[in-house]
Write a structure and sequence with these properties.
Protein name (chain A): F420-non-reducing hydrogenase iron-sulfur subunit D domain-containing protein
Number of domains of chain A: 1
InterPro entries (chain B): 4Fe4S_Fe-S-bd, 4Fe4S_Fe_S_CS, Helical_ferredxn
Helix content of chain A: 40-55%
GO molecular function, one term (chain A): iron-sulfur cluster binding
Structural class of chain A: mainly alpha
Helix content of chain B: 25-40%
Shape of chain A: elongated
Mean pLDDT of chain B: 92
Distance between the termini of chain B: 52 Å
Order of helices and strands of chain A: HH
Number of helices of chain A: 2
Number of strands of chain A: 0
Strand content of chain B: 5-15%
Oligomer: heterodimer
Low-confidence stretches of chain B: none
Number of helices of chain B: 10
Low-confidence stretches of chain A: none
Largest interface: A-B, 26 and 32 residues
Keywords (chain A): Iron, Iron-sulfur, Metal-binding, Oxidoreductase
Structural class of chain B: alpha/beta
Pfam families (chain A): FlpD
Number of domains of chain B: 2
Radius of gyration of chain B: 20 Å
Mean pLDDT of chain A: 89
Shape of chain B: globular
Chain lengths: 57, 316
């Protein structure tokens, strides 16, 4: 539901990923991490929900 | 609905006199028109301050949290669903409550009324059946109530209380053929950029006054996450990202619990339609878990229990 809400607000599908990996599933961890990295790379740098540091004159 | 007032007063008087309840929670007429206030009455001689009409837009369930005494309370559809949620979340016990059920035909949107009279100062509003007359200095206009319902009332499908000890009148017909999620579907059809633009624009005017949180019967934490400073979960400025974070978090805390009572929108001083956040969650709760909050005191909320067949397509 959190994913649904964030994507409803405008976070691109693919930027937010969920998985369940046991500590014994090393290969699954590698696979998922690579998938996530690839899908986020494809989307490019985040555009929304970024807090800029206050600019000090 | 103004005709319920006399019945509510009589019921409250009887309950207080017989000692069935220690206090009675209802509404009284506000000091300015269209702004009815919640009131807690313990003296049976003071029941005449109680009032009910189509401008009772706050949620009385807010005043039940962790009370120890016996309470009489009036509840229409959405308020009764919040009472059920309160019971489920152990904020009040059913035995403490005497619920006077109100078959509700919807609450008037005071902002729509103000717009309709050209933002002139309204000095009096009188209700007659399904019409109401608004008057002020040099004007008096009569409107159809059905055209001035709050947006949540216009698409309400639970007008009658789901839990009560007695009703002030026989149940009203539930609305049919309304789609509560029409606006959500419109946003869902947008691309991410448009969605972000829509929501950023929507909360642009937010002052971070937290009136939406305070009016919400679901928000009863002793210290809200926005007020904590160690750790500070969310920035307290009106930086657009901080404001968006606040709205996302506030809404998500209502996931599977919101009854769409509309109190948050009613109290917003700058008129932000923040139900757009919670409505998406309501829609998902209904689609993924066939769940509408507060309909059944015996069913645990979906985010509260695990079922092997829960929707989990999003897990990689």
């Amino acid at each position: 539901m959190l994913k649904g809400l964030l994507e409803h607000i405008g976070i691109e599908p693919g930027r937010l990923n969920f998985s369940w990996i046991s500590s014994a599933e090393a290969t699954k961890f590698v696979d998922v991490a690579q998938q996530v990295a690839a899908s986020v790379k494809a989307l490019g740098p985040a555009r929304y929900l970024i807090k800029k540091r206050a600019e000090v004159a | 609905m103004i005709e319920y007032t006399a019945i509510i007063r009589d019921t409250a008087k009887k309950l207080l006199k017989d000692g069935k309840v220690d206090v009675f929670i209802g509404y009284k007429k506000g000091t300015v028109p269209m702004m009815n206030e919640p009131v807690v009455i313990s003296d049976p001689e003071k029941v005449d301050t109680l009032h009910w009409d189509s401008l009772c837009g706050l949620n009385l369930c807010n005043y039940l949290t962790k009370r120890k005494d016996k309470i009489g309370i009036i509840a229409n559809g959405c308020n009764s669903r919040n009472i059920v949620t309160h019971i489920l979340e152990n904020q009040i016990s059913r035995e403490q409550l005497y619920i006077v059920g109100i078959p509700c035909t919807g609450v008037i949107d005071h902002r729509a009324v103000l717009r309709a009279v050209g933002n002139k100062e309204v000095l009096d509003v009188q209700e007659q059946g399904d019409k109401f007359t608004v008057s002020g200095n040099g004007f008096s206009e009569t409107f159809d109530k059905a055209k001035f319902l709050r947006t949540n009332c216009a698409v309400c499908t639970h007008r009658n209380p789901v839990i009560y000890d007695e009703m002030v009148a026989s149940p009203v017909k539930e609305q049919e053929g309304v789609d509560p999620f029409e606006d959500v579907k419109k946003i869902e059809a947008m691309d991410p950029e448009k969605k972000w633009g829509f929501f950023t624009k929507m909360i642009e005017r937010c002052l971070r006054c937290y009136a939406c949180r305070n009016s919400c019967p679901l928000c009863y934490c002793p210290t809200c996450f926005v007020d904590e400073s160690k750790p500070q979960w969310v920035g307290k400025s009106i930086d657009p990202t901080d404001t968006m974070t606040f709205h996302i978090m506030r809404a998500y805390h209502c996931a599977g619990r919101c009854t769409d009572c509309g109190a948050c929108e009613r109290v917003c001083p700058v008129g932000i339609p923040m139900r757009q956040f919670t409505k998406k969650l309501n829609k998902d709760a209904l689609e993924y878990f066939s769940w509408e909050a507060g309909l059944n005191p015996d069913a645990r909320p979906p985010l509260d229990v695990y079922k092997p067949d829960d929707y989990n397509d999003f897990v990689k």
